[in-house]
Amino acid sequence: MRTKQATRIHWTEKGIEGGVDLGRDDLVFITIGSLTENSDNGDHHTPAKLRDGPAPAWDLWRRIAAKDPAFGRPDVFGAHIAETKWASATITALDQRIPQYVEKIAKRNPFTGKIVTGGIVTVKDSSWLMSWAVHRQPHFKKQPKDQMIAWLYALFVDGPGDYVKKPMQDCTGEEITQEWLYHLGVPVEDIPELAAAGANTVPVMMPYITAFFMPRQAGDRPDVVPEGTVNFAFIGQFAESKQRDCIFTTEYSVRTPMEAVYALMNVERGVPEVFNSTYDIRTLLAAIGPLRDGKGIDLPGPSFLHKLLMKKLEGTEIAELLKEFHLISE
To answer: What domains does the chain contain, in order, with CATH numbers?
Structure first.
């Protein structure tokens, strides 16, 4: 088996070439690829730009991958901007009328400090396939109490909108706000004025944001510590972990460095197991309560049917679970 060793790091800083030689005991941890590489911010009056030029994070991986097939195939993920780009926006609602439309949909007052949408709201009939969310307010520590922050994104950024007849990727923050207000149900005659003076929106274009969802096969992502490697490792979403884990999680970005350190430094310690919540009904039931702000579920129908149902469940594990997680209104 051929030994793989990093021998030097090269860099260019302010046009000046530099570098450092590496020995066998110098450990290098390399984050390869990037979801946010070349992202660009616009503003309320300026669209975000699609930057498809040089991409340092991806170009670094390409140079490394050219050394050995075991170092992965970066172009599987980073050479398909048309498929991996996204546009999103942060909307600061300055006019109190906007939160009222959010409340009509979420059935919750955005200013109570509690959960608002409880997740992402997808506008299924949006030509952009727009989704948006409003989390607990204030979203930022110094945010004025009368302002509401919403986050919005779209998957189909190349086609015209339903109100704004142009692609989202070409829209200013104001135009994106107009499209959002349209889908919130704001009367058409109120949209221009409300979007112009009632909000401040920052659009963002991200060329590689869904790169890790591109179809892949074994070998497209290098192992965290490729076979034969003595002093370097790959970390992040584009390294292949030996753990039972799923990308697109903070945990994956933590477990790969742990795996790298333990392997290179011969630490006899296991990487923490992934929390097995998917098939644990207790975990799912425990999540329902907070999503409903701690309120139990009111069963439809007359009260005697409610009592009859609970009597039928009496003494069963189902009844115990419902009581334990406070899911049924008394």
So the answer is: 1-32+222-274 (no CATH), 83-206 (3.30.9.80), 281-324 (no CATH)
